Amino acid sequence: MDLIPSFTVDHTKLVPGIYVSRIDTIGDQFATTFDIRMKTPNLEPVVHANAMHTIEHIIATFLRNDSEWKDKTIYWGPMGCLTGCYFIVKGKLKPQDVLDVMIRAFEFCANFEGEIPGADPVSCGNYIFQDLNMAKWEAKRYADLLKTNPCFEYVYK
Which of 4, 53, 119, 139 has its CA 20 to 30 A from that of 35? Predict the structure, then answer.
């Protein structure tokens, strides 16, 4: 069985940043999948699953309410390895094109107060599986990284 392309990336060379994972063609349209890498694979502790679930809820809600990105966002969700998230958008884009919205999204998460969007038994299949405080800590850490090292040079090797 052939490996899927993301399993052919040398994860020992990845550092936190924003990568283009793939660009797909759908008819005459494009969809870009971004690897929003929050942790250095196999070296740093991963984002705890409860915190990642909270980040997913908050940032997915943010993106689908952002005036510029709500109609461009196809998907936002965690990687199974818990070292980051996938952000799938309409169009053929580069990391520079999503840097601002990623900073804003992670800052929104870092400063979030109140009830986690969709964290109730009607809206979520595991609504108590959340950790807002840790999500805020992880989001601040990643937003600060994006602001100081915008990751434009990062490419899969």
Answer: 119
- For 16, which DSSP code? S
Contact 87, 38 (CB under 8 A): no
Element spanning 90, H or E: strand 84-90
Burial environment of residue 136 by CB neighbours within 10 A (0 to 12, 13 to 18, 19 or more): buried
Residue 96, SS3 per DSSP: helix
Q: What is the pLDDT of residues 112-150, one digit of tens each?
A: 999 999 999 999 999 999 999 999 999 999 999 999 976
Please indicate, yes or no, whether the overall pTM of this predicted structure exceeds 0.90: yes
